[in-house]
Write a structure and sequence with these properties.
The protein is mainly α and 320 residues long. It folds into two domains: 1-11 and 33-57 and 231-320, no CATH class; 79-217, no CATH class. It is built from 14 helices and two strands; from the N terminus they run ααααββαααααααααα. The chain has helices spanning 2-5, 15-25, 30-55, 76-108, 125-133, 147-155, 162-180, 189-212, 222-226, 229-233, 237-249, 254-264, 266-291, 303-319, and strands at 112-116, 121-124. Strands 1-2 form a two-stranded antiparallel ribbon. Helix 4 crosses helix 7 and helix 12 crosses helix 13 (266-291).
Length: 320
């Protein structure tokens, strides 16, 4: 049960994601918003534990005995040293992951595979796949134009901090398209590819410079956050909350899944992956549909309860 419940305790890799959304949409209450996310994670861990106790781990459980270490009063020097090493390790690991994802996403999203004559824009592999998968997340408020958020969820499976890198990279690409978009009588693949390579070189140089000297550029000001690109992607605060609820619950990163497989086997790892992802979709969709009741009841409000019944069935099947 411990392996199944650990992902509900939010890891440090999600801090950049929560911080970005909280600063953009909750402004002065950003700290309270992040704290509430952690409390919600603990609450869902408790509810899941009760559910597992009733359906999965039925009967008497074995006694757990653990020898406690000797506790000592921490020293001030030890606290600062331990904090510094943890902070340094997090910044380097998270920064490298975000930078790597931004480079890959920018590169892939810079190569067009289809020219949309209707919108006079070039659709890339990321654009087409994001638009194809976004309808699956429509019940939780992700609109068709917000396919960036869908792709960020899939890259977040490999590393949660990659969500930030994906959104940033796709936003930079869109901004470049808006600035350089020109209506032409004929489509030139060579010209588009040349412009894409030029944009990629520029953004790659900027990304490397910011990674090498992260404190050279000031953080976003309140005015900059007021016009942040996320404001254009999410039209209501309820869409933001539903999206954060999904991130809070859904499948842990790939490294965690591999660790669960080594500790408890492939069957439990797959069950954990399935349970957390379905539960995240159910919670996020149910919240968003309830928030929209004042505007009329949608048929999609019945989907979360039906999915929850299916989730119960999956738990019972795994218990056998």
């Amino acid at each position: 049960m411990t392996i199944l419940l650990v992902p509900f305790i939010q890891c440090g890799a999600k801090i950049p994601v929560y911080s970005m959304f909280a600063l953009v949409f909750f402004k002065q209450n950003a700290g309270i918003a992040i704290f509430m996310i952690y409390l919600a994670g603990i609450a869902f861990a408790f509810l899941s534990a009760v559910l597992f106790k009733k359906l999965l781990f039925v009967g008497h459980t074995g006694e757990f005995v653990m020898e406690l270490p000797s506790y000592h009063l921490p020293t001030l020097n030890g606290i600062f040293t331990h904090t510094w090493f943890k902070l340094k390790s997090f910044i380097l690991k998270a920064g490298q992951t975000i930078l790597f994802v931004m480079i890959i996403m920018t590169l892939i999203n810079s190569v067009p595979v289809y020219h949309n004559q209707k919108e006079n824009k070039d659709d890339t592999l990321l654009t087409l796949s994001g638009k194809a998968l976004t309808p699956l997340f429509k019940p939780m408020g992700i609109e068709k134009e917000n396919w960036h958020a869908t792709l960020a969820l899939f890259t977040g499976f490999f590393a949660k901090e990659a969500i930030v890198g994906t959104l940033e990279a796709l936003s930079l690409n869109d901004s470049s398209d808006d600035q350089n978009q020109q209506v032409e009588d004929s489509f030139s693949l060579g010209g588009v590819f040349s412009a894409s390579v030029t944009d990629f070189k520029s953004e790659f140089a900027n990304a490397v410079h910011q990674f090498v000297k992260p404190f050279e550029k000031d953080v976003y000001t309140e005015e900059e956050y007021a016009s942040h690109y996320l404001e254009k992607r999410f039209s209501s605060i309820h869409q933001v909350i539903a999206y954060l609820l999904f991130i809070m619950i859904y499948a842990p990163c790939l490294a965690s899944v591999v660790a669960a497989k080594k500790e408890a086997g492939t069957k439990l790892a797959l069950f954990q992956l399935t349970y957390l992802t379905l539960l995240a979709w159910i919670v996020a969709s149910f919240y968003y549909q309830l928030s929209q009741i004042s505007q009329g009841i949608s048929w999609m409000i019945v989907l979360p309860p039906l999915m929850f019944l299916g989730l119960i069935g999956i738990i019972r099947l795994y218990a056998k």
